[in-house]
Specification:
The chain has 617 residues and is an alpha/beta fold. It is 46% helix and 11% strand. Strands 5-4-6-1-7-8-2-9 form an eight-stranded mixed sheet. Strands 11-12-13-14 form a four-stranded antiparallel sheet, with helices on one face.
Length: 617
């Protein structure tokens, strides 16, 4: 009798161990798939680095497997008095569900990493409410390929599962209370692999970072664990940092924002029309007058000759939802979340629309896509923008791109509204044609079918729309009393495959144009960023900008010259003598040029103060 009990117990324990090994091998294969898919990065690292991604990354693989085995242990425990037939049905169903979820995450991450530069987390959930727009960045053929890869991965793995486990599970006999107790104890012991640590601190992403190469560290991360961890600690999107006492961080940050009330005047009028053109993904890398290596903007280059060009300008983050807030509310992006996700927080922000509403301006926002995407509608309503024009306000025949209405139709609508509407007005326009997948309605200017070339062609297209718009608007009466501000929502990692934290990914253009602009200054070399737009603009029209506490007037007689940006849980801090990039996950400096200790301290203080402010809104 005892021998039979031991055999039955051994059956279940052996199966438990093999099942855990099955998942561990699955996650090792997923890492190999990631390395092969991201070959532009992985083929630049050594074989040793490849091997180390598996050695260090196995901690998160074990942790993820531990979570799966916890549920498996409960299945085995509560079927102790059942035979293998029932266990097989339950375990196979569980395996198919978990495998499908893992496969979708793993394959989606392959493509998202190319665009985002970091492993997938809970961020995509923000876009699931709008699946059409969420898929708009993916070309149809690629979406089909990814679907087939996902389906293939699920199919092959299930076949493998059946071959390994079917007979073994069906052979299981009914057991007894002793087996139940041991299995329950074993399930409780899964806390050890889940934590992947015997120490006080459980496993975290930083524990698998091992290299000075960011890609190698990213490759070591188990993406399923990363998504799961992000969702489990979603409240931690309001993450705070404790580099120093809060009072010290506040004092340092406020000293960075200290400035004179006197500024250089560049406009003929104190009440001009204002049009802010937010250019999707325009990077300094592709703009000739900014010494871009890949010049795709002949019209912008020409316009720069008659306007005021900012040559040291930066985005504050790497996504549109953060860039819009920075430009219009002067509020910096957050490393691990976006304030636009939380309408109750965005309603507390100042906005340029509110400022101009108070001076009898009509305020507008133009976008050729879906205004409900990424919570934009809630932000513009909270910002008290009076008129919101989106894809539904255009003739349906113009809705001919995955994102909505191409930029030529957007600019045509803008032109007609400007020449026919009462002044003064404040308009914000957000282009979309240069958004991934970069499909534009013109013959390609640059030869090639890779993503970088498609991006260049999309920028060239939007640039041509800019040129046509300004050629027409320059001939109208409105030109004489309008200031146009051209600025990007964020930069781009292409061309050149910049990593997610690289400084050149955050270098963007800003150009001021219009008949209201004087010729006193042709270029501005002062270091600034998107958050400085509100104070700089309001200073030119004699409006109070004190609500924009993170914004500084670039034309003030006295102010601290710096730019701050964030990437996925890290920041960059740039001055006229310093460039420092800091990773909060590994608590390490990624880049330092001319680094002075006080400049790193300023960046840390700024981030700490920002996230405290964010949490308290």
């Amino acid at each position: 009798m005892c021998k039979i009990i031991l055999i039955v117990m051994k059956q279940r324990l052996k199966l438990f161990g093999i099942y855990g090994l099955f998942w561990l091998v699955f996650f090792l294969f997923a890492r190999l798939l990631f390395l092969l898919y991201e070959y532009p990065f992985s083929f630049e690292i050594s074989i040793k680095e490849w091997l180390l991604t598996f050695i260090y990354g196995i901690r998160l693989d074990i942790s993820t497997t531990g979570y799966i085995l916890t549920v498996t242990g409960l299945i085995f425990t509560f079927t102790s008095f059942s035979n293998g037939k029932l266990i097989y049905k339950i375990l196979k169903g569980f395996t198919i569900v978990i495998l499908s979820i893992c496969a979708i995450i793993i394959v989606a991450d392959l493509e998202l990493y190319k665009s985002w530069g970091y492993r997938m987390d809970g961020t995509p959930l923000l876009y699931l409410a709008k699946p059409k727009e969420a898929m708009a960045s993916t070309e149809t053929w690629l979406a089909i390929v990814l679907f087939l890869v996902t389906s293939g991965l699920i199919y092959i793995t299930i076949r493998l599962y059946n071959r390994i486990f079917r007979e073994k599970v069906l052979e299981i006999r009914k057991s007894n209370i002793l087996t139940l107790a041991i299995l329950l104890l074993l399930t409780g012991c899964m806390i050890v692999p889940v934590r992947a640590s015997f120490g006080i601190a459980p496993v975290n992403t930083g524990m698998v970072y091992f290299s000075n190469n960011k890609f190698s560290n990213h490759a070591a991360v188990n993406v399923v664990w990363n998504v799961m961890n992000s969702l489990a600690y979603r409240k931690n999107t309001e993450k705070t940092y404790n580099f120093m006492e809060d009072a010290v961080a506040e004092k340092i940050t406020q000293s960075l924002h200290s400035q004179s009330s006197n500024n250089i005047k560049l406009l003929y009028s104190d009440k001009p029309n204002i049009v802010i053109l937010i250019l999707e993904s325009f990077s300094s890398k592709v703009i000739g007058v900014l010494d871009g290596k890949w010049d795709a903007t002949p019209q912008f280059n020409s316009l720069a000759e008659e306007g005021l060009l900012f040559t040291n300008f930066y985005s504050n983050a790497s996504r549109s939802d953060k860039g819009i807030i920075s430009i219009l509310s002067g509020y910096p992006g957050q490393p691990t979340t976006s304030i636009i996700k939380t309408p109750e927080k965005t309603q507390s922000l100042p906005s340029l629309a509110k400022s101009f509403n108070n001076s009898d301006y009509e305020t507008y926002f133009y976008y050729g896509g879906d205004i409900d995407f990424a919570n934009m509608r809630s932000y513009f309503l909270n910002s008290e923008t009076k008129h919101i024009i989106s894809v539904d306000d255009f003739d349906p025949q113009f809705n001919d791109s995955k994102w909505g209405v191409h930029d030529e139709h957007l600019f045509e609508r803008l032109y007609n509204d400007i020449v026919n509407e009462k002044e003064p007005f404040f308009k914000t326009v957000f282009t979309l044609s240069s958004h991934d997948p970069f499909e534009v309605p013109i013959k390609p200017k640059f030869e090639g079918n890779d993503r970088a070339t498609k991006y260049l062609n999309s920028v060239y297209y939007t640039d041509s729309c800019l040129g046509e718009f300004f050629n027409k608007i320059r001939e109208t009466e409105a030109w004489n009393n309008t200031l146009f501000i051209l600025v990007a929502d964020h930069g781009s990692n292409r061309p050149g495959n910049s990593q997610n934290h690289d400084v050149d990914k955050f270098e963007i253009p800003m150009l001021w144009l219009g008949g209201v602009l004087t010729d006193s200054i042709k270029t501005c070399d002062i270091i600034g960023s998107q958050i400085d737009i509100p104070s700089t603009l309001l200073g030119q029209v004699n409006k109070n900008s004190s609500e924009f506490t993170f914004s500084k007037d670039l034309f003030s007689e006295r102010y601290s010259e710096f730019a701050f940006y964030v990437f996925n849980d890290g920041f960059g801090f740039i001055t006229d003598t310093t460039k420092v990039i800091y990773d909060n996950v590994s608590n390490d400096i990624i880049l330092k040029e001319g680094l002075l200790e006080q400049d790193l301290l300023k960046g840390k203080a700024y981030l700490q103060y920002l996230m405290n402010d964010f949490k308290n809104r």
